[in-house]
């Protein structure tokens, strides 16, 4: 006996469904439906956007964290006539890329195998690169209907190392310049500028540098270029010339004589009145400006703590480390334990205040370097 559902019997419903076309017939591959796999938009704006996405751009400036000098490096590169700065000063495209790439992967995994243009991996990469092209168009100061010069390169900047591994996926033709700064100087600058806590900032700097090193070790050596802030500040002409060679811009057209006139932006000390927060107004450099010795006043025990936490990373970047005695090592082990207990207590106390978050990469972006003073 058939069971009635919504006024119809199950048997009748099955007979009706049997007369419908099969799922495979409704979803034939495009090649079997007489259609084209790719649509073509003949409008001039679409053609220019497509051609712009195919050009060898952008230039991506990354740093392990804020206070690394990426603003200064961007200002130096922007002097080149073939560079144009992004509309967004710090875009954080890569730092927030995990959700976007997961979306592309989830989408292609939802398709039947014969729907794919190539294969799942190829279509995922194609989708991600398409979204990357849209992101570039979004921050490009040149309107989509206007074609920039053929050799003009878009300059993106993010003071964070999160998502660096996604650069090749979102921006397949990009060149990535990674800027590092001495760890103690970076942390002290963050302390003066944003109130970073020393212990949290030391660990965050170490973790970010480790992540960048792991990507550089496994990635394409021709895609990444590592440079130190200290070298750029001491000999900017030499370092800029090497960077121009790496990104493929003509050094002969660079105004090297204008390097000395580049102002200082966002200094933790220069151009700030007492009690004034960090600002990004240009400030002329004077003889007292010395960003290389921000941690000069650090006590020895803090320098040794940084060596304990990030000694290998400091050595790899060519920065000095402090010798650690047996007593220093015992003290640091105890410090690690106390820090761990403190973090456990903090998370237990804040458990009830937590809100469910979907975009974990967005959480890292907003709650990492901007909350080191908590």
Question: Which SSEs are present, and which pair or pack?
Answer:
Layout: E1 4-5, E2 8-9, H1 10-18, H2 23-26, H3 44-53, E3 59-62, H4 70-77, E4 83-85, H5 97-109, H6 120-139, E5 153-158, H7 167-170, E6 175-180, H8 183-194, H9 198-218, E7 224-228, H10 229-234, H11 236-247, H12 300-316, H13 326-349, H14 360-367
Parallel strand pairs: 3-5, 3-6, 4-5, 6-7
Antiparallel strand pairs: 1-2
Helix pairs in contact: 3-6, 5-6, 8-9, 9-12
Task: Order the strands across the largest sheet as they lie in space.
Answer: 4-5-3-6-7
- How many domains in all? 1
Task: Report the sheet with the most strands, covering strand number, pairing sense and barrel closure.
Answer: 5 strands, parallel
CATH class: Alpha Beta
């Amino acid at each position: 006996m058939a069971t009635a559902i919504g006024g119809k019997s199950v048997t009748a419903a099955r007979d009706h469904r049997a007369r419908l076309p099969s799922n495979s017939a409704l979803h034939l591959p495009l090649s079997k439906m007489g259609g084209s796999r790719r649509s073509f938009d003949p409008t001039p704006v679409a053609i220019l956007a497509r051609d712009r996405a195919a050009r060898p751009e952008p230039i991506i400036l990354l740093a392990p964290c804020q206070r690394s000098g990426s603003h200064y490096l961007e200002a130096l590169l922007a002097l080149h006539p073939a560079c144009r700065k992004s509309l967004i000063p710090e875009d954080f495209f890569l730092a927030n890329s995990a959700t976007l790439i997961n979306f592309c992967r989830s989408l292609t995994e939802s398709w039947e195998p014969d729907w794919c243009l190539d294969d799942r991996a190829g279509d995922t990469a194609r989708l991600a690169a398409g979204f990357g092209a849209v992101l570039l168009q979004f921050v490009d100061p040149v309107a989509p209907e206007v074609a920039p010069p053929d050799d003009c390169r878009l300059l993106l900047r993010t003071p964070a190392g999160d998502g660096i591994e996604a650069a090749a996926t979102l921006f397949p033709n990009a060149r990535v310049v990674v800027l590092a700064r001495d760890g103690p100087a970076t942390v002290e600058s963050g302390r003066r500028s944003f109130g970073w806590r020393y212990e949290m900032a030391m660990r965050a700097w170490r973790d970010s540098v480790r992540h960048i090193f792991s990507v550089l070790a496994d990635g394409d050596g021709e895609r990444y270029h590592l440079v130190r802030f200290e070298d750029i500040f001491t000999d900017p002409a030499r370092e800029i010339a090497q960077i121009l060679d790496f990104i493929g811009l003509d050094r002969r057209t660079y105004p090297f004589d204008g390097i000395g006139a580049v102002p200082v932006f966002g200094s933790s000390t220069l151009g700030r009145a007492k009690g004034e927060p960090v600002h990004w107004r240009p400030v002329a450099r004077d003889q007292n400006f010395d960003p290389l010795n921000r941690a000069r006043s650090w006590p020895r025990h803090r320098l040794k703590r940084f060596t304990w936490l990030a000694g290998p990373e400091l050595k790899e970047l060519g920065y000095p480390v402090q010798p650690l005695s047996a007593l220093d090592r015992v003290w640091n082990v105890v410090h690690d334990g106390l820090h761990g207990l403190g973090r456990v207590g903090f998370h237990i106390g804040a458990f009830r205040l937590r809100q469910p978050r979907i975009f974990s990469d967005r959480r890292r972006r907003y709650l990492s370097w901007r909350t080191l003073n908590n």
